[in-house]
């Protein structure tokens, strides 16, 4: 390992299914080392991990098949910063409205989510979100058959809501979740926000 590598964080992006490439591109555009994660051993080389959007039931099943579910859950419980976007947010949630179907979850973020929550009219849409943590300029983003956050636990901070109060971005310590897709927005502020969380624990 070179010294330079020690200084800059290395971010894993779970790359079993979904739009992991867009996250890797975003990280590359910020000059950050991003790694496509498919093997449990790779979890030892990273300082933070992003779980991308896609199909949460498929990603969950693949995590079992690739023997990643338990090791990743352990890593998150040990404190590695994690960010779930859309399907990734569902996988991080302690509870979903789909629990009876036995969907595998990492269950490490104290929220309950409702999948495909926006109905056929608003299934996919773009909007300008106010996210105080990112500064004054609104964050233009995309919802693609996204979930909503129905309830949050006492330690969970709400980072953004839609105009009607629907919770769409949350943080619980080093665990971040967004119901939308900042990786396709061209706006790097959410990725930079996650990188600041990673830097804060990397020491
Ligand atoms: N609807 C998908 C699910 O339930 C999430 C969609 C997405 O990640 N864009 O997993």
From TrEMBL:
<keyword id="KW-0315">Glutamine amidotransferase</keyword>
<keyword id="KW-0378">Hydrolase</keyword>
<feature type="active site" description="Charge relay system">
    <location>
        <position position="181"/>
    </location>
</feature>
<dbReference type="InterPro" id="IPR002161">
    <property type="entry name" value="PdxT/SNO"/>
</dbReference>
<dbReference type="GO" id="GO:1903600">
    <property type="term" value="C:glutaminase complex"/>
</dbReference>
<dbReference type="Pfam" id="PF01174">
    <property type="entry name" value="SNO"/>
</dbReference>
<feature type="binding site">
    <location>
        <begin position="144"/>
        <end position="145"/>
    </location>
    <ligand>
        <name>L-glutamine</name>
    </ligand>
</feature>
<feature type="binding site">
    <location>
        <position position="115"/>
    </location>
    <ligand>
        <name>L-glutamine</name>
    </ligand>
</feature>
<feature type="binding site">
    <location>
        <begin position="54"/>
        <end position="56"/>
    </location>
    <ligand>
        <name>L-glutamine</name>
    </ligand>
</feature>
<dbReference type="GO" id="GO:0004359">
    <property type="term" value="F:glutaminase activity"/>
</dbReference>
<dbReference type="GO" id="GO:0036381">
    <property type="term" value="F:pyridoxal 5'-phosphate synthase (glutamine hydrolysing) activity"/>
</dbReference>
<keyword id="KW-0456">Lyase</keyword>
<comment type="pathway">
    <text>Cofactor biosynthesis; pyridoxal 5'-phosphate biosynthesis.</text>
</comment>
<comment type="function">
    <text>Catalyzes the hydrolysis of glutamine to glutamate and ammonia as part of the biosynthesis of pyridoxal 5'-phosphate. The resulting ammonia molecule is channeled to the active site of PdxS.</text>
</comment>
<dbReference type="InterPro" id="IPR029062">
    <property type="entry name" value="Class_I_gatase-like"/>
</dbReference>
<keyword id="KW-0663">Pyridoxal phosphate</keyword>
<feature type="active site" description="Charge relay system">
    <location>
        <position position="183"/>
    </location>
</feature>
<dbReference type="GO" id="GO:0005829">
    <property type="term" value="C:cytosol"/>
</dbReference>
<protein>
    <recommendedName>
        <fullName>Pyridoxal 5'-phosphate synthase subunit PdxT</fullName>
        <ecNumber>4.3.3.6</ecNumber>
        <ecNumber>3.5.1.2</ecNumber>
    </recommendedName>
</protein>
<dbReference type="GO" id="GO:0006543">
    <property type="term" value="P:L-glutamine catabolic process"/>
</dbReference>
<comment type="similarity">
    <text>Belongs to the glutaminase PdxT/SNO family.</text>
</comment>
<comment type="subunit">
    <text>In the presence of PdxS, forms a dodecamer of heterodimers. Only shows activity in the heterodimer.</text>
</comment>
<dbReference type="GO" id="GO:0042823">
    <property type="term" value="P:pyridoxal phosphate biosynthetic process"/>
</dbReference>
<feature type="active site" description="Nucleophile">
    <location>
        <position position="86"/>
    </location>
</feature>
<dbReference type="GO" id="GO:0008614">
    <property type="term" value="P:pyridoxine metabolic process"/>
</dbReference>
<dbReference type="InterPro" id="IPR021196">
    <property type="entry name" value="PdxT/SNO_CS"/>
</dbReference>
């Amino acid at each position: 390992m070179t010294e330079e590598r020690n200084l800059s964080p290395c971010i894993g992006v779970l790359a079993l299914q979904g739009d992991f490439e867009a996250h890797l591109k975003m990280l590359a555009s910020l000059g950050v080392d991003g790694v496509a994660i498919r093997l449990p051993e790779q979890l030892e080389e990273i300082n933070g991990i992003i779980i991308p959007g896609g199909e949460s039931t498929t990603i969950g099943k693949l995590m079992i098949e690739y023997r990643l579910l338990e090791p990743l859950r352990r890593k998150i419980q040990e404190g590695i910063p994690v960010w779930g976007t859309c399907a990734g947010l569902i996988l991080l949630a302690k509870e979903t409205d789909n629990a009876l179907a036995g969907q595998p979850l990492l269950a490490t973020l104290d929220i309950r989510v409702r999948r495909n929550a926006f109905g056929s009219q608003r299934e996919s849409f773009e909007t300008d979100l106010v996210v105080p943590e990112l500064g004054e300029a609104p964050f233009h983003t995309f919802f693609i058959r996204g979930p909503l956050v129905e309830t949050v636990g006492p330690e969970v901070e709400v980072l953004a809501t839609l105009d009607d109060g629907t919770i769409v971005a949350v943080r619980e310590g080093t665990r971040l979740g967004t119901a939308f897709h900042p990786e396709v927005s061209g706006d790097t502020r959410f990725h930079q926000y996650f990188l600041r969380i990673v830097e804060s624990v990397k020491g």
